[in-house]
Design goal:
Mean pLDDT: 73
Helix content: 10-25%
Number of helices: 6
Number of domains: 1
Strand content: 25-35%
Radius of gyration: 20 Å
Structural class: alpha+beta
Shape: globular
Distance between the termini: 22 Å
Length: 353
């Protein structure tokens, strides 16, 4: 029994470490400028969940399935147990759940307008379809955004380059630009009462697009034309949600692992009416996520930017992966280890305290 438990511990640790080091690429979409020139409106879902919520895997999967089904749907996630303040100069910070008056989880706000899951009259897909009827106000490009690790991972910084081209007027005293660093491949011990991801009542789960900061900037009236702006964030100020959980063989991320699993979401919103005019997302900013390549630039949406063998992003991608999980080179061997390890995790149905 002692040998079995030691083998089990090693396999689980290997699987978790390997899958963090090589992001699997779920929900990554790569939209080129050529493919996104039809004036489509891209839709942003803001999902609220928690690890103790046994119904939340259902809400998470609804967002994942919608992102896989529709290439113009992107989502971000807020942990209900965290207070992610909006960082804005000259004004009091407002926690996002408070702003939307979120009273239960799981819950998803679609394009700033509606709490749509699970108890609203419309399903998540119906809210998405309704949001699609709104006009396209313009484009956001995140071309050139990257994580600079030239000074080492401990001193790394996220560089977000934003270009906005307005097709319709975007103006008003309450219009703001939001920049949210997001973290994927976050291993969490998740309650799962409906067995959405596991046959057990709880298991190790991965979270994607988890908001780590939310920075709000003034947005000058833009009746037409374009503007460009860039922001930098020190990675040492971006804290991973993944914490050490020895009882469930989860280790805290290193600075390198965190950098490899960070991306960014940008959106423009009228904070009074809650209307979101445009949104963009790059799930992984650093080049270790080799399933996608190049810089993607889309109508209201930039997703899937990556580089290969480099520490900074460049070039223009022309590949479109509509939410496919995608295979990372060498992932088959890792997946084999993970399958055995995750099966062994089923021995323990509840979190060790």
């Amino acid at each position: 029994m002692g040998v079995y438990m030691e083998i089990r511990r090693i396999l689980i640790a290997m699987a978790v470490a390997a899958m963090i080091a090589v992001p699997m690429g779920a929900f990554s979409k790569n939209v080129s400028a050529e493919e996104s020139s039809e004036g489509e409106r891209y839709i942003l879902g803001e999902y609220f969940g928690a690890d103790w919520c046994g119904y939340c895997p259902r809400g998470a999967k609804a967002n994942e399935d919608l992102a896989n089904a529709y290439s113009d749907y992107i989502f971000i996630k807020y942990d209900a147990d965290e207070t992610i303040n909006v960082n804005v100069a000259g004004a009091a910070p407002v926690e996002r759940g408070t702003y939307y008056a979120v009273n239960f989880v799981p819950d998803t706000i679609v394009d700033g307008k509606s709490d749509v899951y699970p108890d609203a009259a419309f399903t998540l897909e119906q809210r998405y379809t309704t949001a699609k009827t709104l006009p396209s106000f313009g484009t956001i490009s995140l071309a050139g955004s990257t994580i600079d690790v030239s000074g080492g991972y401990e001193n790394a910084k996220m560089i977000v380059k934003i270009k906005v081209d307005a097709a319709l007027p975007i103006a008003g005293p309450d219009v703001a630009l939001f920049v949210a660093p997001i973290e994927s491949n976050v291993y969490i011990w998740q309650e799962d009462w409906e067995h959405v991801y596991s046959s057990d009542d709880a298991s190790v789960s991965q979270w994607y697009h988890l908001v780590r900061q939310l920075n709000q900037y003034a947005f000058a009236p833009l009746p037409s034309g374009s503007f460009e702006v860039a922001y930098e964030y020190a990675l040492k100020d971006i804290k991973s949600r993944q914490v050490a959980d020895e009882g469930n063989n989860i280790t805290a991320k290193t600075a390198e692992e965190l950098a490899n699993t960070l991306g960014v979401t940008v959106f423009i919103q009228d904070t009074a009416s809650r209307t979101i005019y445009a949104a963009a997302q790059i799930p992984y900013l650093i080049g270790s996520h080799a399933a996608l390549n190049g810089t993607a630039s889309g109508q209201n949406n930039t997703v899937g930017q990556n580089v290969t063998g480099s520490q900074s992003a460049s070039g223009n991608g022309t590949t479109k992966n509509s939410g496919s999980k995608g295979a990372t080179p060498g992932f088959e061997a890792i997946a084999g280890v993970a399958a055995v390890s995750l099966a062994l995790m089923g021995v323990e149905r509840r979190r060790k305290r």
